[in-house]
Structures are given as C-alpha cells and as structure tokens.
Amino acid sequence: MSAQPSLGVPAVDQRLTRAIEFMRTNLREPLTAAEVARSAAVSVSILFELFRYHIQETPMGVLELMRMEEAARLLTTTTGPVCEIAAAVGMANPSSFARAFRRCMRASPSEYRRKAHAATLPGTAAADRCAPHPEATNVEIV
C-alpha cells in the first residue's frame, strides 16, 4: 500500500507545533525564547529559523499576537480592569501592555472595549447595521 499523495501542503514541523502549544498554554508566564525553544527541544537559533520559515514572524512576535488576541477576547467578554487583563495575558506592566495592544489592535484597550460594547448595544448605529430588518424576519421563501 502506498503513502497518501501530497496535496501540495507542507506538513507543519512538530517542533513548531510544540513551541506554539507551549506558548498558548503559558500565556500568563513571562516566557523567554530560550524557554520556548526548550519546550520544542531545539536551540534558540533553530526556533527562530522555524518561525521565520513557516510563519514569517519571530517567536516573540507570535507570542505577543497570541497575548493580544486573548486580551481582546477578555476585554469584550469581561468587565475586569485593564491592569488585570494585562496580568492575565502575562504582561506585568500595564503601560507595556497598552503599547503592545495599540500596536496589534490599532486601539487602546479601553477604546477597544468601548467600541466592542457599543457595537453590541441595541439602538447603536453599529448594532443597527448588523441587526436584521424587522420586516425581514417575517419573509417566507417559497
């Protein structure tokens, strides 16, 4: 029996997968590139090569993006203060967190939360654009 044919999609390197999973499960920790490399059983230079080749980003850049995506989720689903959200994603310094968040999300954490909540409130322009027209709910398609 022959092996399955390749679909032109390269297999993701398991070392990269281990590194990303380690970062994902340790977002709260102040991780270093050396710790991430150790989790993937590679040297720091190989770790950087893997990320550059497969993702076109540095390991710490990917970690920052993962942290900011989690922070964005927390900002829209919780009411905790921004400093608590910063700590929850592994950033002890709220000022550093705010700068990183603005760089990734193009808004301060407070602005992001305010816009996200405004977009979901009934009667707001953003929510009205997304809501179905009242008469459209009674339309029957034959």
Question: How would you characterize the overall build of this protein?
Answer:
By secondary structure, this protein is mainly α. It has one domain: Homeodomain-like (Arc Repressor Mutant, subunit A, Orthogonal Bundle), CATH 1.10.10. It has eight helices and no strands. Helix 4 crosses helix 6. It is elongated.
Summarize the structure.
The chain has helices spanning 14-25, 33-39, 44-55, 59-77, 82-88, 94-105, 109-120, 125-130.
Secondary-structure map with pairings?
Blueprint: H1 14-25, H2 33-39, H3 44-55, H4 59-77, H5 82-88, H6 94-105, H7 109-120, H8 125-130
Helix pairs in contact: 4-6, 4-7
CATH class, named Mainly Alpha
Question: Per CATH, what is the topology?
Answer: Arc Repressor Mutant, subunit A
Q: What's the gyration radius in Å? A: 21 Å
The main pleated sheet reads as:
none
Instruction: Assign an overall shape.
Output: elongated
- The CATH homologous superfamily name equals Homeodomain-like
Specify the structural class: mainly alpha
The helix fraction, in percent, is 55-70%
Quickly give the CATH architecture.
Orthogonal Bundle
SS field, number of helical segments: 8
Question: Notable features of this structure?
Answer:
single chain; 142 residues; mainly alpha; Arc Repressor Mutant, subunit A; 8 helices
